[in-house]
Amino acid sequence: MKKFLFFGVVFTMAMVIMPNVYAHATYGTVEVLTGTGDVLDNDTENVTVSIDGVDLKWYEANPAIGIYDDGWGIGINFLAPDSLAADTATLKVLGGDAIKFTEVEDSEPTNPTRYFRAWISIDQTLLDSKEDVFELCTYEFDWDGNGQYEQKVTVKVNPQTINFQTPEGVISFTVKGANGSRVFTIKGGNKLSDLNEEDKALLDEVIKAPEGKQFVGYKKKNGEMLKDDEEISDGEVLEAQYEEVKTSVIDNPNTSDKNIAIVLTLILASGCELLYAIRKIMSN
Question: Mean per-residue pLDDT for 135-155?
Answer without folding.
Answer: 96
